[in-house]
Specification:
Layout lengths: L1 H20 L4 E4 L4 H4 L1 E5 L6 E2 L8 E7 L6 E7 L5 E5 L10 E10 L7 E7 L12 E5 L5 E6 L8 E7 L8 E8 L6 E7 L2 E2 L12 E4 L6 E8 L30 E11 L7 H4 L4
Antiparallel strand pairs: 1-17, 2-3, 2-6, 4-5, 5-17, 6-16, 7-12, 7-17, 8-9, 8-16, 9-10, 10-11, 12-13, 13-14, 13-15
Length: 285
């Protein structure tokens, strides 16, 4: 009996350790506050025109509410045409070199526009050597296909090249993306990418395989960013860049050109395995 009790205690301890080691870094559901996912970033009509979340009425916001089309709880990102950014940055300062990160991202989108960005793997200091502003930039191209660009380190830090392009049907109730990002140093990192559970093949120019190898995905503090960025209407005047951080103008008409809405239903980020992000990514493991 003593042996059995001791064995049971050891087994229970091992289960606790295993559970602690495999805990998700981010386990976000759309009915939760935005700050549980990360740092909220709203921006007016130019880079650096910060708007306080909740201080732009219904013209620009990030808040949990049901998607009226689906009835599902979501984190709702909205931007009127003259706003540039509505994003949340997750895991600021917590991504490390030499690790592998598994990211599942389930979202819905009302409309897509040329150059609309829905995900960034973003370096905090774009001027830090080697310059590499946005290692991974995920957006819709002119033809409406989702596109991944990789930024080659050096020069201006914005030398991006297309590594993958493919269709994503936003008329669906939701889409699920999966990223596996390895941050090995010295340009030895790699990327794998999934759309609705299907593993994708990268462009022939970059090897034409299911793994994008020999890329630099950590050249300084870097974080994942989710939401809607760029594809804005240019200009609009100083009202879209208020010094107070509070926008006092009117909301644009519903469905206005370059007005965007995204609903994030689920985000899962792990540093352990694909199986931990299967709900948000659609990957069957």
């Amino acid at each position: 009996m003593k042996f059995s009790t001791t064995f049971s205690s050891l087994l229970f301890t091992q289960v606790l350790i295993s559970t602690a080691q495999s805990a998700l870094l981010v386990d976000y559901r759309g009915d939760e506050p935005a700050n549980k996912l990360g740092n909220v970033e709203l921006e007016g009509n130019a880079l650096g025109c910060r708007i306080q979340n909740g201080k732009a009425g219904n013209a620009a916001f990030i808040r949990p509410e049901k998607n009226p089309k689906t009835g599902r709880d979501a984190l709702h990102f909205h931007r009127d045409p003259n706003f540039r950014r509505a994003e949340v940055k997750a895991l600021g300062g917590k991504i490390k070199s030499g690790e592998t990160y598994y990211i599942g991202y389930e979202f819905g989108l009302r409309a897509k526009g040329e150059s609309l960005v829905i995900f960034q793997w973003k370096k905090a200091d774009k001027n830090a050597t080697p310059k590499q502003n946005i290692p991974l930039y995920v957006f819709f191209n002119k033809g409406g296909d989702l596109t991944i660009e990789y930024t080659i380190p050096g020069t201006t830090g914005s030398n991006r090249d297309v590594v993958w392009t493919g269709p994503v049907d936003i008329s669906k109730v939701s889409n699920k993306l999966g990223f596996v990002i390895n941050t090995a140093p010295n340009g030895k990192g790699w990327l794998e990418f999934y759309v609705n559970g299907e593993k994708q093949t990268f462009d022939k120019k970059w090897g034409g395989r299911e793994r994008l190898s020999n890329v630099a995905l950590f050249t300084g503090e870097t974080s994942p960013k989710f939401g809607i960025y760029r594809a804005e209407r240019q200009g609009g005047g100083a009202q879209f860049c208020p010094k107070s951080g509070t926008f006092k103008g009117k909301q644009a008409a519903a469905g206005a050109d370059r007005s965007y809405d995204s609903w994030i239903y689920r985000i899962q980020i792990s540093d352990s395995s694909l199986s931990e992000i299967r709900e948000a990514s659609g990957i069957q493991v």
